[in-house]
Amino acid sequence: MESAFAKLIYCKTQSTFDAKIETFKQTCKAACP
Asked: What is the pLDDT of residues 1-20, one digit of tens each?
């Protein structure tokens, strides 16, 4: 139970992080084509 909860938190954090990286990349492309 505890490990499943930890995995859920990790996955949520990881997907949020990935989304931030994507946004960051797009911003960089817009600023420096």
From this structure: 689 898 989 888 999 999 99
Element (DSSP H or E) covering residue 5: helix 2-31
Q: What is the dihedral of CA 22, 23, 28, 33, to 10 degrees?
A: 80
What is the spatial distance between Cα 10 and Cα 18, in angstroms, rounded to a whole number? Answer: 12
Q: pTM for the complete prediction?
A: 0.55
Q: Residue 15's closest CA among 25, 7, 26? A: 7
Can you give the pLDDT at residue 20?
A: 93
How many separate helices (H) and strands (E) can be counted in the chain?
1, 0
